[in-house]
Amino acid sequence: MTTSDPLHILRDRFGFPAFRTGQRELVDAALAGRDALGVLPTGGGKSLCFQVPCIALPGLTVVVSPLISLMADQLRRAREAGIQAQAIHSGLPPAQRDQVGRAAAAGEVELLLVAPERLLAPSFEPLIPLLHVSLLVIDEAHCISCWGHDFRPAYRELGRIRHRLGAPVQALTATATPKVRAEIEEILGFRRPVRFVGSFDRENLLWAVRPARSPAERNQVLYDLVHRAPGARLIYAATRKRVERIRASMARRGLRTEAYHAGLPEGERTRVQAFFMEARRPLVVATNAFGMGIDRADVRLVVHDQLSGSLEDYYQEAGRAGRDGEAALCVALRGPGDGGIHRAFLDRTHPPIRSPGELVRLWRSGDLGSRLERRHAQLAKLRAVDRYAGTKGCRRRVLLGWFGERRSGPCEGCDRCRGWPGVLGAIGSR
DNA sequence: CGCCTTGTACCTAGGTACAAGGCGGTGCCCTAGT
Separation of CA A25 and C1' B31 in angstroms? Predict the structure, then answer.
């Protein structure tokens, strides 16, 4: 006997006794045909929010995902729950892409994973009128805001696409400030949405910033941190070159260290990911290319050679620590010239207006306001990072404040409240 | 912002020294021509 009752589905198909906070609200919204925004913390069970409606509803659930590797993860998990799930992406042979498209049009697919670019591609166009989409899910929805303007403009077009598909939208993310949440809703054209925003605070994470003046001193500080920390360890650096340098420096000091960035061949990237997932006590140095879809529970230390370009990015990267709930340390090194590279990236992706002619052109086309606003918003993100690095008060309060969460009193979990020896001691040493 | 590469001056032949300028981070997509 089949049932469309969410709780029965949860128990029978997934083996969980009850929904966790937020899941029920998001599932019910999907079943009622309402738009919904879910900000659920890492490990908060986001996939269930659309897998359960996918089973309960007739028709197709389309899940938009930013990375092919994430599609692979979602595909595996959905199939484990007995869902007829498929993906269409450039990694598949053309014949297989066509076959999946035909199956979806014939109603033989329950869950379809695609990149946003795919939804806009001419090759996908003929398929759209044939699909009976009952739910459109935007996974990692913060990408709409952080990438949509420049890096992956397809994210800006999702509002148009959702109307063509004629389905309610469920936007899911683990990291979104109030501003980003508003932008997601605006771009997707939400009306009377259901919203669920979980707490960003993770008590087991310890936060600290350490001074380091030169690259050589940074290497020494990194080594001191990394060689004693138990569990899996991760170092983030701002450039590929710096990643290689750090790897070499750790290796010279006798630590097995693997490097990861987007300039490495596919096979090498896969190998390093597997090393990080499987080795007893791995150490990986990476750019921000590393992490999405990486899900190791016992990461005890995440060190940033330099802080990220925004607190959203920093929280996403550092937040890969301590998923098992045990104490874990998130340290950022700080020195002269920090943030320069992010300002340089910003000048490329959101350039300042360079000439009177350009100013007039933008004003005439009506794009002046949004152009100024976007650059201004990016600069505000950089200033927030500086505030986090330089605060004399509680770091946790600065971090949570950025995500719109208030908090008072000392936290006992950052170097300002507890002192550096205190937070360092909390994760123990090998 | 800081780095690395490239170019020029130096003056008589291949190095040295320094200035100028470009570049740095994320990933989908699959055209047209080997």
Answer: 45
Q: Is the dihedral of CA A51, A143, A366, A118 positive or negative?
A: negative
Residue A52 belongs to what H/E stretch? helix A46-56
The answer on A172 and A81 residing in a single domain is: yes
Of A158, A180, A197, the last residue of a domain is A197
Number of domains in chain A: 2
Angstrom distance (rounded) from CA A152 to CA A169? 20
Per-residue pLDDT, averaged over A339-368, amounts to 87
Residue A257 lies in a domain: yes
Q: Which of A166, A197, A228 is the last residue of a domain?
A: A197
State mean pLDDT over A417-429. 95
Nucleotides of B under 7 A from a protein CB: 1-4, 23-31
| DSSP label of A281 | S
A142-172 burial, b at 16+ Cβ within 10 Å, e below that, comes to: bbbbbbbbeebebbbebbebbeebebbbbbb
In this model, does residue A269 exceed pLDDT 90?
A: yes
Would you say residue A350 lies in a domain?
A: no
Which single residue has its CA nearest the C1' atom of nucleotide B24? A239
Same domain, A262 and A300: yes
Can you give the distance from the CA of residue A337 to the C1' of nucleotide B8 in angstroms?
29
Collect all residues with Cβ–Cβ distance below 8 Å to A208 and sequence separation of at least 6.
Answer: A329, A330, A331, A332, A395, A414, A415, A420, A423, A424
Indicate the pTM of the whole model.
0.95
- Domain holding A294, by residue range, is 205-341+374-426
